[in-house]
């Protein structure tokens, strides 16, 4: 349901009110099931707010399933053709720094600004076994 809500919002970059209403209705089905107050929708609601609702619900709903990191990575890789939304900053780096309690915000921002740091290194044994593999540039 949350993936569909995300897709509806992304389809027209938040510019289609009927898609946005349907996305909020999906989010509210989940919120109602968990006895949380529903989100209000108004025509012309900002794209970042709408997508932020989806990201927040995915964080809360899937917290123990190890999916949040991959959701944030996916959102951080989106590209806005108009250049008005900085997905890397707004939906990846800002979310990681908001929910991280183990490292300083400045360190997290400096590391995550390099997209090669988003992925783990390739094990040396894997590179030895397959010469076609190369080490992630961040770890070289």
Structural notes for this entry:
The chain is mainly α. The chain has 7 helices and no strands. The protein has helices spanning 2-11, 17-33, 47-61, 68-77, 87-99, 105-112, 124-129. The model has no long low-confidence stretch (mean pLDDT 92).
Short description:
This protein is an all-alpha fold and 140 residues long.
In this structure, how is the largest beta sheet organized?
A: none
User: What would the principal axes of the Cα set say about the shape?
Assistant: elongated
Helix/strand-derived class?
mainly alpha
Sequence stretches where pLDDT stays below 50 over 5 or more residues: none
Q: Strand-and-helix sequence, N→C?
A: HHHHHHH
- Mean pLDDT across the residues is 92
- The share of residues in extended strands comes to under 5%
Helix content: 55-70%
- For the termini, the CA-CA separation is 40 Å
* Number of DSSP-assigned strands: 0
> What gyration radius follows from the Cα positions, in whole Å?
18 Å
Q: Count the DSSP helices.
A: 7
Features:
single chain; 140 residues; mainly alpha; 7 helices; elongated
Q: What is the fold's blueprint, element by element?
A:
Elements: H1 2-11, H2 17-33, H3 47-61, H4 68-77, H5 87-99, H6 105-112, H7 124-129
């Amino acid at each position: 349901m949350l993936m569909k809500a995300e897709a509806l919002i992304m389809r027209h970059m938040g510019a289609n009110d009927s898609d946005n209403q349907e996305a909020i209705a999906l989010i509210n089905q989940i919120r109602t099931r968990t006895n949380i107050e529903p989100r209000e929708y108004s025509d012309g609601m900002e794209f970042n707010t709408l997508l932020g609702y989806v990201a927040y619900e995915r964080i809360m709903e899937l917290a123990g399933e190890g999916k949040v990191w991959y959701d944030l990575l996916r959102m951080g890789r989106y590209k806005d053709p108009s250049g008005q939304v900085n997905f890397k900053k707004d939906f990846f780096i800002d979310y990681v720094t908001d929910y991280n309690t183990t490292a300083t915000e400045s360190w997290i921002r400096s590391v995550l600004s390099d997209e090669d740091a988003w992925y783990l290194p390739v094990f040396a044994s894997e590179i030895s076994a397959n010469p076609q593999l190369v080490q992630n540039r961040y770890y070289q």
